[in-house]
Amino acid sequence: MTQQSKTAKAVACANIALIKYWGKRDIALNLPAVGSISLTLEALKTQTRATFDPNLDKDYLIINDQQASESQRKRIEKFLDIIREKSGNRLFAEVRSDNNFPTGAGLASSASAFAALSLAATHASGLELNKKDLSGLSRRGSGSATRSIYGGFVEMQRGKDASGKEDFAIQLASQDYWDLRLLILITSKEEKKMGSTEAMNLTAKTSPYYQDWVNSSGKDLVEMRKAIREKDFEKLGDLAEYSAMKMHALTLSSRPPVLYWNSTTLELIEQVRALRHDGIPVYFTIDAGPQVKVISLPDHINTLKSHFEFFPGVENIMESKLGPDVELIGDDN
Ligand code: PMV
Which residue in 267, 266, 249 sits closest to 258, CA to CA? Predict the structure, then answer.
């Protein structure tokens, strides 16, 4: 029987980790060495349309209206192969993916991209997965994508089993649970120097602190869950800064060292500390790049926005509330 073409479209939000994921215990299956906890960001979205089509002679991949680069193509084709394997649908696919945030802004878009692709492509392939399995599948594309399956407060669990069957994310609380606000301060639009996978593997091999990072992560997760449960903003912020600094201490202690910050990053850290000293509830976190993400509460977000808007070295600011689960937004068939 000839297979019909089938299309599905999905939208997913990016997320920012409060307790960072850094390090893999299995590279091939992309199993994390540590658990992580994140906030899903409403303002940063990827919309993806996937079609499995009998008339295609290869996968066609368009990202932000441009042909995928060689490295993106390899990564996405490998991911589509996993879906083909699971669904038994052997057709090639056309994938169109668009971010609503500035492209090349140095923001990791792999989380929203692989979460949206997981839902759109499984649906188009004829495979219906629940959220747990969707999260586990997203992991094969990117570790942080597991968390973008859910809205609000999300934990990616580090499993013990070698198969990876326990490595998926769960929702800790929905987006309406607690109205946190974020500012994303863009300090550079350059490509990051080293991708997170390469840097993680370098860290695991060469940092003398790596094992301590892995051993101490359980405690950070317990404390962050408690801060969220008790809506203790100071505790949440303090732990988020601690986890980010600890992660950057790891990259700095690798050989060769990996320094993701620029001078504006450092100035913004000082600014956040000074504002806090003046009584504003505000904390920062930083991923594998020079952008600073500021976490605060609704009453203070406008003051913070005015403060950072024209700050030297800040090229762009985005504001976000907490966002929802990944969602199907249309299915042509
Ligand atoms: O999902 P990946 O492989 O791009 O790694 C994400 C790593 C960090 O963004 C630095 C931390 C995190 O938990 O998101």
Answer: 249
Q: What is the CATH number of domain 1-333?
A: 3.30.230.10
| Ligand 1 center to 66 CA (angstroms) | 24
Pocket test for ligand 1, best of 196, 217, 250 (most atoms within 8 A of CB): 196
Q: Which residue type occupies 125? A: S
Query: What angle in degrees, to the nearest 10, is found between the helix axes of 263-277 and 301-309?
Result: 140
Contact 72, 125 (CB under 8 A): no
Q: How confident is the prediction for the chain on average, in pLDDT?
A: 95
pLDDT at 332 (0 to 100): 47
For the segment 35-64, what is each residue's pLDDT rounded down to a tens digit? 999 999 999 999 999 999 999 999 999 999
Q: Whose CA is nearest to atom 8 of ligand 1?
A: 287
146-162: average pLDDT? 98
Q: Is the pTM of this model over 0.85?
A: yes
Contact, 80 vs 93, CB < 8 A? Answer: yes
Tokens representing 106? Answer: 């140095």
Rounded CA separation 97/114 (Å) = 10
Give the Cα separation of 165 and 40 in Å (integer): 23
- Condensed to tens digits (0 to 9), the pLDDT of residues 297-307 reads 999 999 999 99
Structure tokens at 17: 């980790």
Q: Whose CA is nearest to atom 6 of ligand 1?
A: 144
On the 0-12 / 13-18 / 19+ scale of CB atoms within 10 A, 55 is exposed
Over residues 255-295, the pLDDT tens digits come to 999 999 999 999 999 999 999 999 999 999 999 999 999 99
